[in-house]
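Table S2 (continued). Query chain:
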Amino acid sequence: QVCRYTLEQKKLPDGKIEAKTKKVHNPVKPDTFIKIPNLVTGKNVTYRLCSIVLHIGNSPSSGHYKAIAVNKKWIEFNDSQVTEIKPNLKTQISQQCALLFYEKVGT
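Corresponding output:
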């Protein structure tokens, strides 16, 4: 799952704004590599997954964040613990992935 947060705003009769934030879950299967067309040239540019931010919790105001860096090895950063993990995207995504970061491949 990839989680995202939505902000719902409502104007109250007294003119104040009431805002509520909620966590939304959407299943996703991220690719290790993605191709996005360059807006100028139209040619596809390849990007490689380089890090993942996980959020474990039910709301944006509570829970725990972990990060995974992907290079030659997959490294999980969980507070003061840093450990090498096996590259299993399904496992990581099922732990509530909040953000995926990709880097451009080549020049």
